[in-house]
Amino acid sequence: MSRPIHSAPRRRATAAGCAVLLFAALASGTASAADPTPSPSATTPSASGDTGLAGLDPRITEIMRKPDYRNAQWGLLQTDPDNGRVVHSLFPEQFFIPGSTAKLISVSGPWHTLGADHRFVTPLYAVGARDGATLTGDLDLVAQGDLTMGGRTRPDGTVAYTDLDHTYANDFPGATLTPENPLAGIDLLARQVRDSGITRVDGDVIVDSRLFLPDPELVPTPTPLIVNDNLIDLLTTPGDRPGADARLDWRPKVAPYQVTSAVKTVAAGKPTAVTVTATDGGTRIRLTGTIAADSAPLLRTSPIGDPAGFGRVALIEALERAGVHVTADPTGPNPVGRLPHDYAGRPRVAAYTSPPYAQYAKLILKVSHNLGANLGICLLAVTAKSDQCPAGFPVLADFLDQAGVDREQAQLMDGRGGNPADRATPQVLVQMLAYWQRTPDARLFREALPILGVDGLLAENCRSCPARGKVFAKTGAAVGGDALNDRLAVGAITIAGYLDKGGGRFDTFYAGVNGASTPGADPTEVLAITNDLAMIAAYLQESS
C-alpha cells in the first residue's frame, strides 16, 4: 500500500474555547489544495445532480454569499432516506477535504466488523511453575487493542467523556478530565492475580504487544496497549497569590515518570502561558511559565514514549498495591525476548473485559478522538489476521462495498481524516449515514454523534435555537497557516449527520466549505466559520 507524501513541517492552528469543531491540522499549504469548482451561484439543476441554491432557506444562502467566502467552495447534500429523494444538492460528487467527518467511515468499519456488542478481553497469563502462592516465572499481559483499559469506564459500564477531551488539551483551552481512574483496568488485573492466590512472582511482568505493529503514518499512532490515551495529564492551578508557585497535579503517577513545575502565579488578567518539555524518553517532564491568579485550572499533556514499558511498570506497581511482590526491577526494560510463541496450556490468572465497542465508537465520534479512529484501522487489520495496520484498509473497503457505499468517492490514508491526501464527497458521507438507518443499530449510531446544543463538539452551539437536540452530526475541520497573507488557511469546515424532521423521519445531510480564509492570524477567527456551519445545519433542520 502506498504511503502519503509529507510536505513542510506541520503548523497547528488553535482556537481558544473551540468546543464547536476540532481541527485536523494539515501540513502548511495543503489547506488550499481543494479541487476548484465554480462559485455556488447556480440556481438550476446540473448534470451532476446539483439543485444549486434554489429552494434553500434564505438564511443559508446569506451565509454562503458572505464576502468571507468569495474564494471558497461550498458543498451541500440533504436527502430523505425513506424514499431517496434529494432535498438539496450542491456539488454532491465533488471531492472535499473531510476533516473529521471521515470518522463516519472509519468508525463504521470496526462497528460493523467487530459488532456493537464486541468486548475486548485483555488476558494475563502465568508463564512458569507455580508452588503455592509463588510463581517462578513471568506474568504476561497480552494487549488486545483496548482503547481505554478501564480508564474511562463509569460504574454503570458506559464510557465517560467531556465535551472537550484531554487529548486536545495542548491545542485548546478548556479541555477537562473525566473523574475516572486511568489505571482502573490495570488495578483490576492486579487484584485478580491476588485473588488467584499468587502473592509472589520470582520473575518479571511482560507486556505482549505483538497484536499489531505501530504504524508511524497513523498520527497519533495506535499501540496494542493504551493507557490514558498514552498521555500524562498535567493540571496546573494558580497559587494563593501573585508570585506564589502554581500548584501541580498529574496522572497517572507511574515510575519512572517524574514531573516538576516552575510555573508562577501572576496577577489576575495577566497572560497564562505554560510550556511543557520532556526529556529522557518522555519520563522527565517539566512545566514552566505563568498562570493568572483568576485562571481556571489549566490542563496540558505529555506523551508516553513507550506505552508497553509504561504498562509494565504500572502493572508491577498495581500488583505491589494489591499484595503481590514482583522480584524484577519495576523500572527495567520490557523483556519481550522471554515471551512464549503462544499461550496454549498457560493458565490465565486475570483478564480485563472492556465495555462494548459501541461505547468506544460513541467516545470517538462525540469528542473526535483521533487515536481511537486510527486504532480502528489497526483492529480491522487484526480481523484479517495481519499485524500490519495498512491491511485494515482492504477490510474497510469490503465493508463499504457490502454497505452500498461508493468507496471511490472517498480517499483515506488514515482513520481520523487528518492526512493531506484525505478526500470525500458529500454523497459518500450521506451514503454512509443512510446505510446505518437500514440497520438495527440505527438509533445507537445516530445518538453516538454529537448532538446540537447538547453534547460533544456541538454542545455549545445553538443552545437556545429551535433545532437544539434535533441535529445529530459529526464535525470536521482542516486548518493551516497562510504566512504569505498573515492569516489562516481554512482548508475545510464540515458537518454531516442526521436532521430530526419529526414523525420518525431523519434526513441525512452534509454541509461543508473548502478554501476559506480568516481575516487575520488570530485562531479564534475560525470560530465564525465553524458557527456558520453549525447554523446551516440548524436551518436545514428547521426548514420544511
Outline of the structure:
InterPro entries: Beta-lactam/transpept-like, Peptidase_S13. It comes from Streptomyces nojiriensis. This protein has ten helices and 20 strands.
How is the topology of this model organized?
Elements: H1 58-64, E1 73-80, E2 85-90, H2 103-114, E3 121-131, E4 134-142, H3 184-195, E5 200-202, E6 205-208, E7 231-237, E8 247-251, E9 258-261, E10 264-266, E11 273-279, E12 284-292, E13 298-303, H4 307-322, E14 325-326, E15 348-353, H5 357-367, H6 370-383, H7 392-403, E16 410-411, E17 423-424, H8 426-437, H9 442-447, E18 471-482, E19 487-502, E20 505-517, H10 526-542
Parallel strand pairs: 4-5, 4-6, 5-14, 9-12, 10-12
Antiparallel strand pairs: 1-2, 1-20, 3-4, 3-15, 7-8, 7-13, 11-12, 16-17, 18-19, 19-20
Helix pairs in contact: 2-5, 2-6, 2-7, 3-4, 5-6, 6-7
List keywords for this structure.
single chain; 544 residues; alpha/beta; six-stranded mixed sheet; 22% helix; globular; disordered N terminus; carboxypeptidase activity
